[in-house]
Each structure stands twice: as C-alpha cells, then as structure tokens.
Amino acid sequence: LAFSGETIVLELSAPDAPDMTLVDLPGLVRDDAVPPEQVDAANATIANYLVPEQTIILACLACDGDAHGWADVLGRARKVDPKGARTIGVLTKPDLIAAGAEDDVLSTLQNHRMPLRLGYVMVRCRPPAELAAGTGVGAALKEETKFFLANEPWNKIATLVLGAEKLTKRLVS
User: Fold this and answer.
1) Can you give the pLDDT at residue 22?
2) Widest CA span of the chain, in angstroms?
3) Which end of the chain is more exposed for a tag (fewer CB within 10 A), N or C?
4) SS3 of residue 105 by DSSP
C-alpha cells in the first residue's frame, strides 16, 4: 500500500451547515514496516497543510491509550503554531478510554494537562454499529449528547467542551 500526496476533495452542502473546508490529513506513521519514503511523503503532506496562517489546526487525539500519538500531534502543531493561536485539541473516542485513565483525559479536556490557548473539545465518533445501521447526523448528535449525560466524569463538567455541535460553534464563531 503506497501513500499518495494527491488530495481528495468532498464538497458537502446543507442549508444549516457552516461555510468551511476540512482537510483530513494522514495519521502519523510510526510503523517500522512502512518504507521511510512513505513516512516522508505523509509527513510532507501534513506539513504543507499545517503551515498556512489561515489554517485552524484540529489536533485530533484519540482517547484509546495512544499517549505517544498525542505528543507527536501536539508537537507538530506547536512547531507551526508556537503561540497556539490556531490550534484546538479534539479528543475522540471517549467511549474507549481505559479504566483508570479518565482523570488524565479529564485533566486534558479541562486544559490543565498539555494546555492549549484555544483549549479542547471532546467528541464521540459514531461506533461501527451506528454506521452500519445508517444512523444519520441528527440521530448521531442525539446519541452523542446521551453518551455524555450518561457517563462519568463527562456528566459532571461544563457542556461547553462536549460534542460535535460545540466544536462546530467554536470553529465558526
């Protein structure tokens, strides 16, 4: 499998949708089985998109135990945005947090651990079962809200940092 620097552009529109462009960059490669030229190509693509000053960096950090990945992602963001003026941390997969790791994730979400000037937001991605069932965006947002209300410690904190709708509002305001 080879990495390509070519861009795939999907244009989505809806009457209530904000006007923005999202670029989903390749994940960070830390697999020794991947040829170095593929790693270099992926890193070059990531760098090209992070550098422009008008780019808002969504530093996506999965909560499923990859702490090394967090350091890599935030390190790359800090390299091109040292003042943190355009980086927002997005914590994903809160339903996959290892037992006992909730306090570290909560500390990050509350911007105490690895602070960012623009802070963090946590979103719940649709699990495979919801995707397979064809769950629409509206229903997925309701499920996300139910998840945060039903699970500790998320149901004990300010909802300003929880959910895809809160992330969208921060991006367009």
Assistant:
1) 72
2) 46
3) N
4) helix
Matching residue, tokens 């693509």: 45
**What's the chain's length in residues?**
173
Q: How far apart are CA 152 and CA 61, in angstroms?
A: 19
Q: Supply the DSSP symbol for 70.
A: H
> Is there a contact between 151 and 122 (Cβ–Cβ < 8 Å)?
no
How far apart, in whole angstroms, are the C-alpha atoms of residue 79 and residue 65? 24
Q: What is the mean pLDDT of residues 95-102?
A: 89
CB-based burial of residue 94 (10 Å sphere; 0-12 exposed, 13-18 middle, 19+ buried)? buried
Query: pLDDT tens-digit profile of 103-142?
Result: 999 999 999 988 999 999 999 989 899 999 999 989 999 9
The answer to whether residues 171 and 151 touch, using CB atoms and an 8 Å cutoff, is no
**10-32 confidence digits (pLDDT tens):** 777 778 777 777 777 766 666 66
pTM of the model: 0.85
Instruction: Identify the CA nearest to 167 among candidates 149, 136, 144, 151.
Output: 144
Amino acid at 20: M
Q: What share of the chain is helix, strand, coil (3-state, %, to 5)?
A: 45, 10, 50
